[in-house]
Design a protein that fits this description.
The protein is mainly β. It folds into two domains: 154 residues, YVTN repeat-like/Quinoprotein amine dehydrogenase (Methylamine Dehydrogenase, Chain H, 7 Propeller); 161 residues, Methylamine Dehydrogenase, Chain H, CATH 2.130.10.10. It has no helices and 26 strands. The strands form seven sheets. The chain has a four-stranded antiparallel beta sheet with strand order 2-3-4-6, with no helix packed on it. A four-stranded antiparallel beta sheet has the order 7-8-9-10, with no helix packed on it. InterPro entries: Coronin, DUF1899, WD40/YVTN_repeat-like_dom_sf, WD40_repeat_CS, WD40_repeat_dom_sf, WD40_rpt.
Length: 337
């Protein structure tokens, strides 16, 4: 006589979210109103950076994590761009270095002082000029020092050596339309992109070639995202033809059909996925939602297992993902925004 397992075994079944106390929040921050689908903020164990409203150019705030409470309107910003800032990313190898991409077609890399800003920072360490249209995506290489990828509305992906300010690779002609997202593989040998033409592509930057491509990964016309998982699989979020939000898991060796596909709801905010390779948990945050859903990715069907939802009082406009070394492991913390 066999007993069917009624409840799937998972060590993350009882994971729950806990908001910080009000006095540990940052208040009175005028978050940017640009309509770009970026995360608007980035965080590391030392600082939190937030793209803010700025007159006559683009700026972002950099606050030491402990500087909570009401932020004065005169608090100094990083303000060297001549157009709105669209994306920011902290360097994984140096907590004081941050890159920003802007509507002014440039990428700038900044060195933040040890204790944060005491006056406006207008001089970047390096300016990277190579895009002919606004730069909407910047992301550091996960393993190689001083290597930065940028993607612009000119449908070009550039990989830079930040130390010498030179282009290492220029990838043109691979994307016929706007690039929505770029994600490096864990070892940094490849990256995957989601494009407005509804295709997901895996690209080898050294060869400058598309290694794998899935057309019409999601049928809907609204923005989609693609991220690499640790085992080389690809996780995507997007919209169905009926404008329902979807999640899908793809095996790079066989992109004909998704390994798993789930429909969530019919909200219209873009879904931003965040992946934790240590626990194999994907966190999905929707722009304009007031919830974060999390799913465990496993080897056995249905591959994508819903764990739980964290609900907040306020809708979220952006979110930053704390690296593992910034977590309080003594309290069994596995993720922080």
């Amino acid at each position: 006589m066999s007993f069917r397992k009624v409840v799937r075994q998972s060590k993350f079944r009882h994971v729950f979210g806990q908001p910080v106390k009000t006095e540990q929040c940052y208040d009175d921050i005028r978050v940017s109103r640009v309509t770009w689908d970026s995360t608007f903020c980035a965080v590391n164990p030392s600082f939190v950076a937030i793209i803010v409203e700025a007159s006559g150019g683009g700026a972002f705030l950099v606050l030491p994590l402990h500087k909570t409470g009401r932020i004065d309107k005169s608090y100094p910003t990083v303000c060297g761009h001549t157009g709105p800032v669209l994306d920011i990313d902290w360097c994984p190898h140096n907590d004081h270095v941050i890159a920003s991409g802007s509507e002014d077609c440039t990428v700038m890399v900044w060195q933040i002082p040890e204790n944060g800003l005491s006056q406006p920072l207008t001089e970047p360490v390096v300016v990277l000029e190579g895009h002919s249209k606004r730069v909407g995506i910047v992301t550091w290489h996960p393993t190689a020092r001083n290597v930065l990828l940028s993607a612009g509305c000119d449908n070009v992906v550039l990989i830079w050596n930040v130390g010498t300010a030179e282009e290492l690779y220029r990838l043109e002609g691979l994307h016929p339309d706007l690039i929505y997202s770029v994600s490096w593989s864990r070892d940094g040998s490849r990256f995957c992109t989601a494009c407005k033409d509804k295709s997901v592509r895996v690209i080898d930057p050294r060869r400058g070639t598309v290694v794998a491509e899935k057309e019409r990964a999601h049928e809907g016309a609204r923005p989609m995202r693609a991220i690499f998982l640790a085992d080389g699989k690809i996780f995507t979020t997007g919209f169905s033809r009926m404008s329902e939000r979807q999640l899908a898991l793809w095996d790079m060796e066989n992109l004909e059909e998704p390994m798993g596909l789930q429909e969530l709801d019919s909200s219209n905010g873009a879904l931003l996925p965040f992946y934790d390779p240590d626990t194999n948990v994907v966190y999905v945050c929707g722009k304009g939602d007031s919830s974060i859903r999390y799913f465990e990715i496993t080897e056995e069907p249905p591959y994508i297992h819903f764990l739980n939802t964290f609900t907040s009082k306020e809708p979220q406009r952006g979110m930053g993902w704390m690296p593992k070394r910034g977590l309080d492991v003594s309290k069994c913390e596995i993720a922080r925004w």
